[in-house]
Amino acid sequence: MPDLPKWIQVYDPFGHWWLSALVAALPIIVLFTLMAGLRVKPHWSAMAGAFTAVLVACFAFGMPVSLAGASLLFGVATGMMNIVWIVVAAVYL
Length: 93
What we know:
The chain is mostly helical. It is built from 4 helices and no strands. The longest helix is centred in the C-terminal third of the chain and has 28 residues, at 65-92. It starts with 16 loop residues before the first helix and ends with a helix. 6% of the residues are buried. The mean pLDDT is 94.
């Protein structure tokens, strides 16, 4: 596995906590707007929210693209493992 670059997160990149919090909330806003407001299918809404989270992390918070991609893959793998764990447990039950 290649070494990923080191990165220190800046919690307030815009100098105003409310603006930084609003930008950080964009993925949730996109997810809920697509699902509830526009009635887009949940899997498409989730992918749009994840893509928005990667864009916000890279461009607004300065996260390296390799770390953002690795974080996305880790989150997908963790979510899939939780679903598989529940389904397998239900089958054996």
